[in-house]
Design a protein that fits this description.
Length: about 500
RNA sequence: GCCCCGGUCGUCUAGCCUGGUCCAGGACGCCACCCUUUCAAGGUGGAGAUCAUGGGAUCGAAGCCCAUCCGGGGUACCA
């Protein structure tokens, strides 16, 4: 099927899935979906030393959480597998051997150890690490003598010494390098594993990848890949280098910038839709005014000409706002369901399990007041708690004293225990009248009641809250406040 | 050092290709006011960008050309 869009996300299992990687996955996925193509996940596990168990599972979980689905790859298979590079070793070996026999690559007999730490020249980056290698110029006899003396699987690519390598990047336009500035990079390592460079080229060709979309940090290795494609006689895919995501200090986003693993956003109570929307805006825009945009609208409109060239700083504040927007768009039932796991995690065990029906009625009261789901327990706790332990001095409002506070409390208690209709409009009507009789401002009277009912100075609207709590709970709480306040006096 | 990419309000960005309608628009954040039983949410308004800098071609530039500066990335038997 020529012309079909096939893009891949190629994570390497070396740690927790990073926001930057996920963003790359997201753009690839959007591009595939926009063009009716295929989105493929391929695991680049060619570095045995850095392999971290569980990281691929975490990555896939992250994608699933964001609703990013893949057409080929781990768990789903596909016609171009295997999708783990560690299971494709013979393919790379064969290609490397072919390059050697064609004269496009050569065995290297230099140091079998990783570059020494004390190589001052390399550390200063004054010179490329491969500068000392003379193996390219070995004669036939010298070569066979060395290969007899020591087995070496290390193979370097023989970069053309002149000429220019160009790429027409879909985001950046023409970029070119003088080949003389490129070194003879390694394509096969001593352990028989390929390096990234060989493996990507081999697999992108074999898997018929049409577009390579990856972060800008890969741009410098593109000419190497292009030369490999050429030497192997493969048609290269199109390239698009995405802007990078930076921390507040403008350096590449990393652990020291705080939450960078996708798992942290799940645990902190962000909604997947919000995170996705926010990440889309890091490098792409629909127009000059749209911020909140559905993933359907994004896929409908996702084109590379609307991707920015410059890197973007990850602004946690805007993400938080975005999350609030999405929380407010939930139905009460959805909100309640989303809060449940957080309540189960954070509420004291004796308040569990939560009454789902009750929670569904509580949810609307918090919807405009919560920005992250991990606030759930703190913001709803008093709905579930039996006894309050707040400081009763907090009951006394500005301009009031202990006596007026106590009579306010008692008057309200009378009203509430006599009420047969706990509808919030009725409660407000009744207590407003009582407050007027007591010659208290709404602020004062309701302030006292708010603390009595919740133990806090800040809460959702008082009467709607009482309605949800119901008569028994409300009366009991106010009564409790009266008793504790009297006792404290 | 060398190679490459980038540079519009603090931040994300629109506009740049197809110069005039841009003394630069939106959003987050910040400030004020309105609403109001607290907190939010919402509404209104405000501060905030000599379009990195300097030249040039043009009647006219954020937009075109050149130079410079700054930022970032790469320079591994890591991806």
């Amino acid at each position: 099927m020529p012309g079909e869009v096939r893009v891949r996300f190629a994570p390497s299992p070396t740690g927790l899935p990073h926001i930057g990687n996920i963003r790359t996955a997201l753009f690839n996925w959007l591009f595939a979906r926009h063009n009716g193509g295929k989105f493929i996940v391929r695991v680049e596990d060619t570095d045995q030393a850095r392999l971290v168990p569980g990281s691929i599972e975490a990555m896939l979980d992250g994608l699933r959480w964001l609703n990013i689905d893949w057409d080929e790859g781990p768990e789903v298979g596909g016609d171009y597998g295997p999708y783990f590079q560690s299971e494709r070793l013979d393919i790379y070996q064969e290609m490397a051997d072919r390059l050697v026999s064609q004269g496009n690559a050569y065995h290297c007999y230099c140091s079998q150890k990783p570059p020494a730490d004390d190589d001052q020249r390399q550390r200063d980056r004054r010179v490329s690490a491969s500068a000392d290698c003379q193996c390219r110029d070995l004669s036939q006899e010298e070569g066979s003598k060395l290969s007899a003396a020591q087995e070496s699987k290390v193979i370097r690519f023989a970069m053309p010494k002149d000429g220019i390598t160009r790429v027409n990047d879909l985001i950046r336009g023409e970029v070119e390098w003088r080949n003389e500035t490129l070194n003879d990079f390694i394509i096969m390592k001593f352990d028989g594993f390929p390096t990234y460079h060989l493996a990507v080229v081999a697999d992108d060709h074999l898997m018929e990848i049409s577009h390579v979309m990856r972060a800008e940090e890969w741009l410098p290795s593109t000419p190497r890949h292009l030369q490999l494609f050429e030497a192997l006689g493969f048609e290269p895919p199109k390239f698009a280098h995405l802007p990078m995501i930076m921390g507040p200090d403008r350096a590449k986003l990393s652990k020291r910038h705080g939450a960078t693993a996708i798992g942290e956003y799940i645990v902190d109570g962000y909604l997947p839709e919000a995170l996705l929307n926010f990440m889309v805006l890091l490098g792409w825009s629909l127009d000059d005014k749209t911020d909140v945009v559905s993933s359907q609208t994004v896929t409908d409109n996702f084109t590379l000409d609307r991707v920015t060239k410059s890197s973007a700083i990850f602004d946690q504040k805007k993400l938080l706002w975005m999350n609030g927007m999405y929380i407010r768009e939930l139905t009460p039932d959805q909100l309640a369901a989303a809060m449940t796991p957080f309540l189960e995690r954070d509420l004291p065990k004796d308040m569990l399990p939560v009454d789902e029906e009750y929670l569904r009625r509580i949810a609307p009261l918090l919807q405009e007041r919560i920005k992250r789901l991990d606030e759930s327990a703190d913001i709803t706790e008093y709905f579930f708690r039996a006894n309050e332990t707040f400081n009763t001095d907090d009951l006394v409002q500005k301009g009031m004293d202990r006596d007026s506070t106590l009579s306010a409390l008692n008057a309200a208690l009378d009203d509430l225990s006599g009420a047969d209709d706990f509808q919030h409009e009725k409660l407000e009507e009744m207590l407003t009248a009582t407050g007027e009789k007591l010659e208290l401002s709404r602020r004062q009277f309701f302030g006292v009641l708010r603390v009595a009912a919740t133990g806090r100075a800040v809460s959702p609207p008082l009467f709607e809250m009482m309605e949800v709590m119901g008569k028994d709970r409300t009366v009991s709480r106010v009564n409790n406040a009266v008793e504790r306040f009297s006792a404290a006096g």
